[in-house]
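Suppose you are handed a protein chain with no further information: no name, no annotation, nothing but its sequence. What can you learn? This example shows the usual starting point.
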Amino acid sequence: MKNLFIENGINLTDEQVEQFILYRDLLKEYNEKFNITAITDDTEIVKKHFIDSLMGNSLLEGESLIDIGSGGGFPAIPIKITNPNLKVT
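A reasonable first move is to predict its three-dimensional structure. Written in structure tokens, the prediction is:
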């Protein structure tokens, strides 16, 4: 997983990698109950959900972010994982 992020110019700490693994596992678990996403392959989750969510990361300004009804926590949760000091609502 970490290599996919690195290939896209996103450097993560080991703690952040663990958070993304937990998020991926929870997403897959709850997807079986609530049909959150059609994407269930681990690599595709990283590419199409996590990395895509972070493509605008460098454009973020300020101390807070509001994510209104994006579903599945995208892009807010990946952004929060990579910006732990950001207040996300």
